[in-house]
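Illustration: Putative glutamate--cysteine ligase 2.
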Amino acid sequence: MRTFGVEEEFLIVDPVNGVPLPLSAEVMRLHGAGGPSAGQVLSAELHQEQLEVITHPHGTLAGLAAEILAGRAHADSLARTAGARIVALATSPLALTPHPTRNERYDALVEKYALTAREQLTCGLHVHVSVGSDEEGVAVLDRIRSWLPPLMALSSNSPFWNGRDSGYASFRTQAWNRWSSAGPMEVFGSARAYHSLVADLSATGVVVNPDFDARLSARHPTVEIRVSDVCLDPRDTVLIAALVRALVETAAREWESGKEPDGVPAIILRQGVWMASRWGLRGELLHPATHRPDTARRVIAALHDHVRDALEESGDGAYVEEALERILENGTGAARQRQAHVRHGRLADVVTHAIALTHQEPAGHHPSGNGSPSWTWKPLAEAVV
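Result:
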């Protein structure tokens, strides 16, 4: 079974007024003082107002879910010591001027990318899935391209930007796509072609490590899927990870069987990215099979059907079915942020509400015998019209 892990980026915020605080260095100091026994992997990010929590590779959904919850709790305990909290918001609802992290790498990024880098206080969810070789990895990248916008829609969690409602479900995606190499790519065809393109990009002097929506990891034998917002609810993080692993497994099997990838142009995929960013699950999405608008419910059902066999074989099928139904019924993180804003009327209260959701223990969390969490909701089939 393929192993998988996640990287979650979080904001460090004032628990009273909701404003992000430049405390990553202090949180990292406290983490280091705890020694290796802390068990969690934390990293600073581009701005001092954010922090990344990285899981180890896991073979089961239950193991990954447990570390996701533990990582959030550990990071939050350190932030509390520093007088702050950790919150899973992909953008800050409140306006601020971020403080870049000072080191050689980030200093160079800010110098080169100017305002794009200085404003890039965004938090994503990156999912790594193991592959057997670069050739298999590139074959996977070529065959999952059309299925990534629905993942973005499911994870959408950034409706507010610079103190106002952006109108988008994932405004992080709009901000992220200002990077020069961000977005969907054409079919590569081979590992040699992939590495040749990466080398050519590096030779331009603009790009060091490309920000493709999905790429080969530069450090691990994995593919790295990077389209998702950090998820407000940890159960959604688990869902996205399960879907990504199933997409990778399904794509690898297609490659092994000789099935050619969909050659749809990247510019069409970019329209699907835009639709998912704009509407989340509240409007139409591009259907991955037809590349024509369809209801979000039917598109999510198509994604589910596409990876169903891989999900069942990994033991993740029941959890994914139940979690998809929950999101379709209750809404994404973006919807829940907007609901909190309507109820309370202040963006600071949106952050306070989000802090509670970031760290909640999912009801009925008892790992089942098949290695998946046993959180229970109605089947997805009941929600598809």
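Reading the tokens back as a structure: Residues 4-382 form a domain with the Creatine Kinase; Chain A, domain 2 fold (CATH 3.30.590.20).
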